[in-house]
TrEMBL record:
Entries under Pfam families matching the protein: PHO4 (PF01384)
Lineage per the UniProt record: Bacteria, Pseudomonadati, Pseudomonadota, Alphaproteobacteria, Hyphomicrobiales
Main location: membrane
Superkingdom to which the source organism belongs: Bacteria
Location within or outside the cell: Membrane
Protein name (record): Phosphate transporter
Length: 498
C-alpha cells in the first residue's frame, strides 16, 4: 500500500501521550509546593498534639502551631529574598545555590542565635493590662498571627516584598484595638515604627549610592582597573567584615550574649583589620593575569558577595524567626499557665517550627521574589549587589545606634532602588564617566564604546517604575491592612475561644 494512503495512527497516539505527560508534569509542578507546605503544616500540628496531650489548652495550641507554621512559610517566601536576591541577580551564584545557602544560614541563625526570650505583646505595642484576660489575649495573638500571614501571602502573590515585622506589628495593633480600644495602643511606639517606613529605605538607598559612587570613582573608571582593585577591594572586604561583625554582635547574637553598641564597634574594627590583612594577598593572587575590564572586577567581587548573602541570611534568621513564633510562644505559655506573662521563653519545638518553616517557604516559594529583587527592579552586577549588602548591614548598625526600629526588607529594597536611581543620575550627569567613555572610544586597542546621544542618556531609565510604585504602595498599606484584618478575625475568634 502506498505510504500516502497510510494513517500514522501510532504516531498520533504517541504524540497525544507525550502531550498528556507534559501537561501532567506541569500540573504536578503547580501543586507540589502547596502539597509539601500542607504536609509540613500537618506535621507541625501532629507534633504539637503529641507534646501537648493532656495539657491545658491543647486544642488552641495545636491550632496556633498550624498558624505559626503557615506564617513561617510565608516569611520564607517573601522576606528572605532580600538577602540573596542581589547575589542571584548579579550572577555571583545560581538560584539553586542561593536557595541552599539561604536555607542553611536562616535555620542556623534561628536555632543558634534566635532570641530565647521575647515580649508577649509584640514590641510593646499593646499595654499588657489591656489584654490581661487569658482567653482575650490568646484570641488577639491568634488573630494577629493569621492576619499577618494572610497579608504576607497576598503580598508574595503580588510580587511585593513587604516587612514581616510591620505585618505582625499591624496584626497585634488591630487585635489590640478590637480587644481594648484605641487607648490600649502605645502610639509613641507606633509613631517610631511609622517613621522607620521612610527612614530605613532612604538610609539604605543613600548608603548604597555612596558605596557605588566610590567604587565607580576609585576602581571602575580608572585606566588601570586591576591595580585600583588590588588597593581598594581589600579595603571594601575589610569594611564589609567589620560591619557584619558589628551587625551580628548587636542583632544576631543577642540571644546568646548581651553586647552593647560600643563593644560591637570595637569587635567590628578588630574583625575589619584581620580581614584586610587576609584579603590583600588573596586579591593580589586572584587578580594576576586578569584583563583590564569590568568583567574581571566582577570576578573579584563575587566571593565576598556570596559570603555577605550567607551572613545576612544568618542574621535574618536570628532576628525574624520571632515574627513567626513569638505570638505562637505567647499562646503556648498562656494556654498552659492560664495567665498572661510580660515575657516568655520560646520552647525548642516552637523555634524549630519557625526555623524549618522559613527555610521550606524559601525553597518552595522564594524564587518568585528572588528573581524580582535580583533582576526585575534594576540590573545588578557583583559590584552593585555588594553595595546593597554592605548598605543593609551598615543601615541596621546606624539605626540601632539611633534607637530606630527598622525593617531589613525596607533597607535592602531601598538599597536596590538607591543603586538603580544613582546609576540613572550618574549615567546622564557624570563628567568623569563621559571622559572615560571618550578616552576608551579613542583608544583603538580597546573595543569601541557604544555611541549614545546625550539626549538618550538623559531619558534612560534604569529602574522599573511599575515595581517601585507597587512596592511602595504595599509598604504603606501593610500595617493598616494587617490591622483591619486582625480586628475582624479577633471578633470571629472570640465566638469560639472563651
Amino acid at each position: 500500500m502506498p505510504d500516502t494512503l497510510r494513517k500514522p495512527t501510532l504516531d498520533k497516539d504517541l504524540d497525544k501521550l507525550t502531550t498528556i505527560e507534559q501537561a501532567t508534569e506541569r500540573v504536578s509542578r503547580g501543586i507540589m509546593a502547596p502539597g509539601l507546605s500542607l504536609i509540613f503544616v500537618l506535621i507541625c500540628a501532629l507534633v504539637a498534639a503529641l507534646l501537648m496531650t493532656g495539657q491545658p489548652g491543647a486544642v488552641v495550641i495545636v491550632a496556633a502551631a498550624v498558624v505559626g507554621a503557615y506564617m513561617a512559610l510565608n516569611i520564607g517566601a517573601n522576606d528572605v529574598a532580600n538577602n540573596v536576591g542581589p547575589a542571584v541577580g548579579a550572577r555571583a551564584m545560581t538560584l539553586g545555590t542561593a536557595l541552599i545557602v539561604a536555607a542553611v544560614c536562616e535555620s542556623a541563625g534561628a536555632l543558634i542565635a534566635g532570641s530565647d526570650v521575647i515580649g508577649t505583646i509584640s514590641k510593646g505595642i499593646i499595654s499588657p493590662d489591656a489584654v490581661s484576660n487569658p482567653s482575650v489575649f490568646i484570641s488577639a495573638m491568634l488573630a494577629a498571627l493569621v492576619a499577618s500571614a494572610m497579608w504576607i501571602h497576598l503580598a508574595t502573590w503580588l510580587k511585593a516584598p513587604v516587612s514581616t515585622t510591620h505585618s505582625i506589628v499591624g496584626g497585634v495593633m488591630g487585635s489590640g484595638i478590637a480587644a481594648a480600644g484605641l487607648n490600649a495602643v502605645n502610639w509613641t511606639t507606633m509613631g517610631s515604627i511609622a517613621a522607620s517606613w521612610v527612614i530605613s529605605p532612604v538610609l539604605g538607598g543613600i548608603f548604597a549610592a555612596i558605596f557605588l559612587a566610590f567604587i565607580k570613582t576609585a576602581i571602575i573608571y580608572r585606566d588601570d582597573k586591576i591595580a585600583a582593585a588590588r588597593v581598594w577591594v581589600p579595603v571594601l572586604v575589610a569594611l564589609m567584615s567589620g560591619i557584619f561583625a558589628a551587625y551580628l554582635s548587636v542583632k544576631g547574637l543577642k540571644g546568646i550574649v548581651k553586647i552593647t553598641l560600643p563593644m560591637a564597634l570595637i569587635i567590628g574594627l578588630v574583625a575589619g583589620g584581620i580581614f584586610w590583612l587576609l584579603a590583600r594577598p588573596l586579591i593580589a593572587k586572584q587578580s594576576r593575569g586578569l584583563e583590564n575590564r569590568n568583567q574581571s572586577l566582577r570576578y573579584l567581587f563575587s566571593l565576598p558577595l556570596i559570603i555577605s548573602a550567607g551572613l545576612l541570611s544568618f542574621a535574618h534568621g536570628a532576628n525574624d524567626v520571632a515574627n513567626a513564633v513569638g505570638p505562637l510562644a505567647a499562646i503556648v505559655h498562656t494556654a498552659e499557665a492560664g495567665e498572661v506573662a510580660a515575657k516568655v521563653s520560646i520552647p525548642l519545638w516552637v523555634m524549630a517550627v519557625g526555623a524549618l518553616g522559613i527555610s521550606l517557604g524559601l525553597l518552595l516559594f522564594g524564587p518568585r521574589l528572588i528573581k524580582l529583587v535580583g533582576n526585575e527592579i534594576t540590573k545588578l552586577n557583583p559590584m552593585r549587589a555588594y553595595c546593597v549588602a554592605l548598605s543593609a548591614a551598615l543601615t541596621v548598625i546606624v539605626a540601632s545606634g539611633l534607637g530606630l526600629p527598622v525593617s531589613s526588607t525596607h533597607i535592602a529594597i531601598g538599597a536596590v532602588f538607591g543603586v538603580g536611581f544613582f546609576r540613572e543620575w550618574y549615567t546622564s550627569r557624570s563628567q568623569r564617566r563621559a571622559d572615560y567613555v571618550a578616552r576608551r572610544a579613542a583608544d583603538q586597542s580597546q573595543p569601541k564604546a557604544k555611541k549614545t546621544s546625550s539626549e538618550d542618556q538623559k531619558h534612560r531609565f534604569l529602574v522599573r517604575r511599575a515595581h517601585f510604585l507597587t512596592i511602595v504602595a504595599a509598604w504603606l498599606i501593610t500595617v493598616p491592612a494587617a490591622a483591619i484584618l486582625s480586628g475582624i478575625l479577633f471578633a470571629i475568634f472570640r465566638i469560639f475561644i472563651r
